[in-house]
Specification:
Blueprint (H helix, E strand, L loop, with lengths): L1 E4 L6 E4 L7 E3 L6 E3 L16 E5 L6 E5 L6 E3 L6 E3 L2 E2 L5 E2 L26 E4 L5 E4 L6 E3 L14 H5 L8 H16 L4 H20 L2 H26 L1
Antiparallel strand pairs: 1-2, 3-4, 5-6, 7-8, 9-10, 11-12, 12-13
Length: about 240
């Protein structure tokens, strides 16, 4: 059967292969149509040969391909850059199809978000071509080469899971707690409790974005102590 569409009423029609090239009247709008010639359907060939791993030249994500796919072009599923699948030599080495040179293993760590599925951070592309990583945890944007989120410290790479995550502890929360404690015996000094409240507000917001309950408790403790310190100052000045 030959499927085709009426160009007048857009009705879906079909005709026998023997009717190809002959006239046929559309049963819906009664327009006389010419049955098109049957088109051969190309059956895509399945990738064959050994399956081998390789790395994206842009983001170092670990990818895989079959031996028959060597030399073909595609897009990295992680960073969306255009890449060329290397050729697998019979001795197991990877050859760059463009330069013919042996591809040396990339010393950079493989990005963990390459296999994170739905939790993978979003790769953003600016109009000028530069790329950023948007963290799924706090929605902050970091350079595409970052190992951790610059805001909440969520690891983007295997290296980032072992390194100390930047921003994982808020200095404002710690400062608020210290200043709040100092303001209690400070008596008439008003500066420490005021600073403790300001730092506490800033630190609490950062900790809330990072979902860090420890830092939030520090900020709350610092602000409570600062409030008590301000009350002491007020009572002292009244009497």
């Amino acid at each position: 059967m030959i499927p085709f569409v009426c160009h007048v009423c857009r009705s879906a029609l079909s005709a026998d292969d023997k009717q190809a090239g002959s006239a046929l009247r559309c049963p819906t709008c009664m327009t006389v149509l010419t049955v098109p010639q049957p088109q051969a359907v190309a059956v895509p060939s399945r990738p064959s040969g050994r399956r081998f791993p390789f790395q994206c030249a842009y983001c170092s994500s670990r990818l895989e391909a079959n031996e028959s796919m060597g030399g073909q072009e595609g897009h990295c599923p992680t960073c969306d850059n255009k890449i060329t699948i290397p050729i697998l030599h019979r001795d197991g080495r990877l050859i760059d199809p463009k330069s013919g040179q042996i591809i040396k293993p990339d010393p950079h760590p493989v990005h963990a978000y390459a296999a994170a599925g739905a939790r993978a951070p979003t790769i953003l592309r600016r109009p000028d071509g530069t790329q950023l990583i948007r963290c799924t945890h706090c929605a902050a944007e970091s350079p595409v080469s970052a190992n951790n989120c610059k805001n909440c410290g969520m690891p983007f790479t295997l290296e980032g899971t072992t390194a100390q995550a930047p921003g994982s502890e808020s200095g404002f929360c710690t400062a608020s707690l210290v200043l709040g404690i100092i303001s209690l015996p400070g008596g008439c000094i008003i500066i420490p409790p005021v600073l403790a409240i300001i730092f506490g507000i800033i630190g609490y917001r950062q900790a809330a974005r990072a979902d860090n309950s420890t830092d939030k408790n520090k900020a709350i403790g610092g602000m409570v102590c600062a409030a008590i310190g301000l009350l002491i100052v007020f009572v002292w000045r009244m009497y």
